[in-house]
Amino acid sequence: MNHIESLFEKLNADNAPGQEKRQNKNDIEIKGESLEGIFVDFSHGDVDAHQPLPESIDYFNEGFSEIGSSQAYTEYRGLSEILTETAEKLSAFTGTNINPEEELIITPGTQGALFLAVGATVTRGDKVAVAEPDYFANRKLVHFFQGELYPVHLDYLNHNEKAGLDLSALEAAFKDGVSTFLFSNPNNPAGVIYSSEEIDRIISLSNQYDVTLIVDQLYSRQLFDQRSYTHAISHPDADREKIITITGPSKTESLSGFRLGTAFGSPVIINRMEQLQAIVSLRASGYNQRVLKSWFSEPDGWMDERILKHQEIRDDILTLFREAGITVRTTEAGSYVFPKFDVLSVDCITFSKILRKQANVVVTPGTEFGPEFTDSIRLNFSQDHQNAVDAVKRIITVAGYYQNEP
Amino acid sequence: MNHIESLFEKLNADNAPGQEKRQNKNDIEIKGESLEGIFVDFSHGDVDAHQPLPESIDYFNEGFSEIGSSQAYTEYRGLSEILTETAEKLSAFTGTNINPEEELIITPGTQGALFLAVGATVTRGDKVAVAEPDYFANRKLVHFFQGELYPVHLDYLNHNEKAGLDLSALEAAFKDGVSTFLFSNPNNPAGVIYSSEEIDRIISLSNQYDVTLIVDQLYSRQLFDQRSYTHAISHPDADREKIITITGPSKTESLSGFRLGTAFGSPVIINRMEQLQAIVSLRASGYNQRVLKSWFSEPDGWMDERILKHQEIRDDILTLFREAGITVRTTEAGSYVFPKFDVLSVDCITFSKILRKQANVVVTPGTEFGPEFTDSIRLNFSQDHQNAVDAVKRIITVAGYYQNEP
């Protein structure tokens, strides 16, 4: 295998969320009966069930029809007017002060922001800490930029009032020369929030060991049960030159089809991200950028209602899993549950293929979030409520067909 | 300077087209008078002067309102339905047969396609040939992927019926171990078409030396003076495993604000490009993908009319430059002219800043297309006809203020 083949071996996206249609599942042998039911794709949210704000498409059309050329061809980091408005909103949200000219970039989705942030901080041989489990692309990004991976365990199952990051392991990694720590908060896939004490310690360690923080806060607006959330960037000890925050309207706001993300923080890193964006995709789609005008400008009550509806779906799903004896931590924020099936006789990749064939349900295998999560699957429960409940019942039934002998 | 600083030094986009607003031009000293006139930004086309098809926005709105979730979340390489239609159109256009499932990917603009194609073929230490002059990002992409650059001179000024690539130098580079050759046809910035004999030789050399070809054909629909065009992929000797063609609707069709590109060819490379896209931006914006339905489906006569209008602007601009004694080759395809100012007393970067300050005109410095083009500037003449003519007159007047002493 040559260089490029082994590189792409590590990037393999065959089991990544959204790619299920391209999988071959002819080789899967079924036990028990096939279950009828409305198809549910838990690999991502359903923007038909939870629709974007109607204003979003109006802003797009305004960009196309009224603004025209200057909206089609923006500076690589985004149109100045949109940057200014978005910086104000993000400053208010995070409790900090973001300079729109120097500290903010608009990207093609938060995936685009993650790619640029890692590309702007990591080169060959650099040591990078990532939480495990965490978003499937994080480890791949480190491989792609030829960094050295330092996985740090997140003990999400055995805690309640904190995410459960192994802070001693984090310090050991930092001590060993890690220069960047990349993590999602709320965590994807576990749906847990880092406590203020955890953020405090992460900030303090990053200062002590001169580590850049890349914090993916994609789901930080969707908090359940009146939980509190700590923005790392607004921590009094945060070094603004050493922190990049990433967020966007693709999830709670259902604007994923527009591919919009933002990153803010260190001007040096944001500037590099723009240089990189110039050769990666030039800019986030011009007309699409205008849709950010609807973000953080939702009508009163809209966000509360959206969160409440998701909390209700979450509650029903958690109850079903727990009644069936399947281990799952309560989602504190975001739309993911990450149940652990202790007695499954097949690995999670096979189980996911079985679920697609036998239960008309798509889920994402746990191993996308870390190699050790062979007995877990991730579900995005931003779905039609009843369809989601029915689909989870089918998952539980099928899991029953594939139990280890006691 | 550490690794990442020196890497980003080479990616510097401060003088790249579209970034002029972020430049500091306070340090520019002016000779002669400032010229009044309507602002023209020759760094890109004006989609207000040459508008997209009205149907394009209808397809977007259909994606958002009627198709919904399945259009928002497509497979990384694009929605199957759109891939199928687009493969048919591109097959007819290029005279070949493109398998929509295996040989085609939709990307965020052709920039996205270029990035993925180079990323899928070049790793550290690989030798890559690029034409000079050529598109500004090509050399940066090679630097970014840590390839070794082999520039091959394109003698565009001294030929008429061919582009003027130095085929002996190309063979020497191939002999020296080049594994990828990346070039635009029609050439950006020179606006010239590779002759069928040149394509013939490039194909033959690539077969002989086992070199992958990445051909950026972004402007291949906009041919002037009934010129003929040779698609490398449909050459009878082309090795389908060794060639990637890139194109999209951002230029002639004025759909740049949607960020849509396509790449087609080698299934192995297209597959890698999809794996890479999964960590770069996930996919081209979902709703935007639907706009490809309008591409190659323009009403009868629409494309002829568009080309004719551009040919008329080109003719007036060429006449003005030539009357002023400025060397410029006739644009054979696309919307670029690349005039050479033989007696300018300032370099092209300074001259570009002067033009912005003194003539209310944005142009792109020649050095963006190769380090030796210090006395050339690139203009995209897809502008309002009269405004473009007036702006070129201002450029010529200002050039007169900055002549070398004879």
TrEMBL record, chains A, B:
* Recorded superkingdom: Bacteria
Look up the record and name the cofactor or cofactors this protein needs: pyridoxal 5'-phosphate
Which class of enzymes does this protein belong to? transferase
Q: Which InterPro entries match?
A: Aminotransferase_I/II_large (IPR004839), AspAT/PAT-like (IPR050596), PyrdxlP-dep_Trfase (IPR015424), PyrdxlP-dep_Trfase_major (IPR015421), PyrdxlP-dep_Trfase_small (IPR015422)
What keywords were assigned to this record?
A: Aminotransferase, Pyridoxal phosphate, Transferase
The family database entries (Gene3D superfamilies) matched by this protein are listed as:
Aspartate Aminotransferase, domain 1 (3.90.1150.10), Type I PLP-dependent aspartate aminotransferase-like (Major domain) (3.40.640.10)
Q: Does the keyword field hold Transferase?
A: yes
Q: What is its EC number?
A: 2.6.1.-
Q: Which residues form the Aminotransferase class I/classII large domain?
A: 41-395
Q: Which GO terms describe its molecular function?
A: transaminase activity
Keyword Transmembrane in record: no
Q: Name one Pfam family in it.
A: Aminotran_1_2
Protein family (similarity comment): Belongs to the class-I pyridoxal-phosphate-dependent aminotransferase family.
- Name under which the protein is recorded: Pyridoxal phosphate-dependent aminotransferase
Tell me what organism the protein belongs to. Answer: Corticicoccus populi
Q: What taxonomic classification does the UniProt entry list for its organism?
A: Bacteria, Bacillati, Bacillota, Bacilli, Bacillales
